[in-house]
Amino acid sequence: MILSDSIFEVKRRIDAACKRSGRRSDQVTLVAVSKTLPVDYIKQAYQAGLRIFGESRPQEVRDKTAVLPQDIEWHFIGPLQTNKIKYVLPVCTLIHSVDSMHLAKAISDFCQKKDISANILLEVNTSDESSKIGVQPKEAMEIFKKIRLFPNINIVGLMTIAPFTNVEADIRQSFRLLAKLKEELHSEIGRNQQFELSMGMSQDYEIAIEEGSTMIRVGTSIFGSRGR
Fold first, then answer.
1. Using 50, 70 and 90 to split pLDDT, how confident is the model at 130?
2. Torsion angles phi and psi, residue 31, rounded to 5
3. 10 located within any domain
4. Can you tell me the distance from the alpha carbon of 190 to that of 112, in angstroms, rounded to the nearest whole number?
5. Using CA atoms, how far apart are residues 76 and 89, in angstroms rounded to an integer?
6. What values do phi and psi take at 95, rounded to 5?
7. What is the CATH number of the domain that holds 54?
8. What pTM was estimated for this model as a whole?
9. pLDDT over threshold 60, residue 228
10. Higher confidence at residue 47 or residue 133?
11. Considering the domain boundaries, does residue 228 fall inside one?
12. Are the CB atoms for 58 and 38 separated by under 8 Å?
C-alpha cells in the first residue's frame, strides 16, 4: 500500500462527509492510529503530511517519541494503567481514554508533582457493551464535573467507540448519544470553549463526522491491517 494514496483517500472521504453534514473539513482532526506499527511506517505518513498520531501502548509511545520528529503531536488512545502514566504524560498532547475518577486523579497527582498539566477526554461507553471501558452515559455529567475540579488537568471533551456491528442505525445512535452529552455539558462548560468529540474509526468515521465528531481515529484505512 502506498501511504500517500490511502491518506489522500481518507481525506477525500472526510471532505465528502463534512460536505454532506454542512461542516468544514478543518472542523475535523485526523488522528493517524500508529499503534503497533514500526517507526518506518510513521516516517512515511509524516513525509506524506500527517502530524498527529495515536498510540495505545505506553512504552511504545515513549520509545517512538524519542526517535521521531519533534513536531509530531502524539495522542494516547488506549487503556491506561496508573503505573504507566509516567511514560505517557510527558510526551502526549491529549489522552483520549480516561475512563474513571481513579485514573483522572492519578493523572492530576502526577501532573502536580511534575508541575505540568494534562489535556484529557472522558471516555463514555455509549454502546452499552460490557467488553468496552468507559463511564456510563447517565454518570458522565457528574463525573465530568468532579474531574474538572482536579488541579493540573484539563478535561476538553468526550470519547467513545461505536458498537462492533454493521447496523448503521446502532452506530449512529452511539454517536448521537455522545453528541447529546456534549450539548448537556455546554451548560457546565460554556459554549465558547472548544469541546472535542473523539468518535469514529476506520469502519465508521464518515458516520461519526455526520453526527458531529471533531476528532477521528483512523488506522487501518491509512496503514492497512495489522496484528494486535
1. confident
2. -105, 115
3. yes
4. 26
5. 9
6. -110, 115
7. 3.20.20.10
8. 0.94
9. no
10. 47
11. no
12. no
Bridge partner list, 153:
118
Q: Hey, what's the torsion of the CAs at 27, 122, 57, 3, to 10 degrees?
A: -20
Mean of all residue pLDDT scores within the chain: 94
Cell digits of residue 128? 452499552
DSSP one-letter string for 115-169? T--EEEEEEB-TT--TTS-SB-HHHHHHHHHHHHTSTTEEEEEEE----S-S-HH
Q: How many domains does the chain have?
A: 1
Minimal CA–CA distance to 55: which of 7, 71, 38, 46? 38
Give the type of residue at 216.
Answer: I
Residue 40 binned pLDDT confidence (cut-offs 50, 70, 90)? very high
- On whether residue 160 sits in a domain, the answer given is yes
Is residue 108 in a domain?
A: yes
Range of the domain at 187: 3-223
Residue 106 contacts residue 84 (beta carbons within 8 Å): no
